[in-house]
Amino acid sequence: MADAHGSSNNHVPVLLSFSEFSRPSSVAAGSGYEVLIQKFLSIYGQQIDVHRKFVIQLFSDEWGQFIDLPKGFAISERCKLRLVPLQMDITTLGNLTPATTVFFCCDMQERFRPAIKYFGDIISVGQRLLQGARILGIPIIVSEQYPKGLGATVQEMDLTGVKLVFPKTKFSMVLPEVEAALAEIHGVRSIVLFGVETHVCIQQTALDLIGRGFEVHIVADATSSRNFMDEMKMNNRKNICGFSPVSLD
C-alpha cells in the first residue's frame, strides 16, 4: 500500500542514495526496475562511473540492512533504495563470439513502414543481420508489438530458423518467454539488438538486459524512430546506461 502521507497523484515517496549522497524523490506506484534506473540516472547521471555495472538495493526492515532488489519488485510504499557499483569492470564491448551471442529483432512490422524514418534502410541491414546469424549459427529472437493491430514482421525479413517469434504489448522484449528461451541457450553473454523504436522498445529492452547482466550491442544502422530527435535522445544515454552502439558499415 502506498504511503498515505507523502503520496500524491498515486506517487510514492522514495529515498534514493548513491555513494555518499541521498535525495528524496517520488515515483509512480507500481514502478519497477527500469523506472528506478531512469530515476537514478536523472538525479546522479553526472556522478555515475560508466565503467562499472550497478545493482539497485532496497533497505529491509526485517534484516536491518540493504538487500538486492527482489526479482519482479514494484514500488508500493515508502522505501529507501541505493545504487551500488559492483566491484568489477564491464567486459570491453565489441568482441562478439557466436557461441555466446543471441540476436534480438524488435518489432520490424508492416504498420511501422510509413511512420519510421529510414525504414527501408533498416530492413536492408536487418536482412543482412539475420542472414549472418543463420550462417554463424547464432540464435534469433523476434518480437512483434500487438501483431493483431500492427501486423506481422515485414515479409522482407526472412525468419527461417529463428528460435522464437512472440507477440508483446509491453515496450521491452524481456518477457518471461524470452527469459525462458535465453535460459535454454548455454553461456549467453552478449545480445545484438536491432529494430524499432530506438527511444522506446529498443531502450527499454537494453536496460532490462543490462539489469540482468548481459552485454548489449545495438546496431545503429538497423534501428530508428519516428523522428530523428527521439533517436538522438536515446543515443545520448548510451554511455551512462552501459550499452554499445555498433555499425555494419
Order of helices and strands: EEHEEEEHEHEHEHEHHE
Structural class: alpha/beta
Q: Report the major sheet.
A: 6 strands, parallel
What is the number of E strands?
A: 11
Count of separate DSSP helical elements:
7
The end-to-end span amounts to 52 Å
Catalogue the unreliable spans. Answer: 1-7, 229-242
Q: Kindly report the spatial arrangement of strands forming the biggest sheet.
A: 8-7-6-9-10-11
Radius of gyration: 19 Å
Average pLDDT level: 85
- Principal-axis shape equals globular
Q: What proportion strand?
A: 25-35%
Q: Residue share in helices?
A: 25-40%
Would you spell out the secondary-structure blueprint of this structure?
Blueprint lengths: L10 E8 L2 E8 L4 H12 L7 E9 L4 E4 L10 E11 L11 E6 L12 H18 L3 E6 L1 H4 L13 E5 L7 H8 L6 E7 L1 H14 L3 E10 L3 H8 L2 H4 L2 E3 L3
Helix pairs in contact: 5-6
Notes on the structure:
The chain has 249 residues and is of the alpha/beta class. Helix content is 27%, strand content 31%. The protein has seven helices and eleven strands. The chain has helices at residues 33-44, 119-136, 147-150, 176-183, 198-211, 228-235, 238-241; strands spanning 11-18, 21-28, 52-60, 65-68, 79-89, 101-106, 140-145, 164-168, 190-196, 215-224, 244-246. The strands form two sheets. Strands 8-7-6-9-10-11 form a six-stranded parallel β-sheet. The protein has a five-stranded mixed β-sheet with strand order 2-1-5-3-4, covered by helices on one side. Strand 1 (11-18) and strand 2 form a beta hairpin. The longest helix has 18 residues, at 119-136. The termini are far apart.
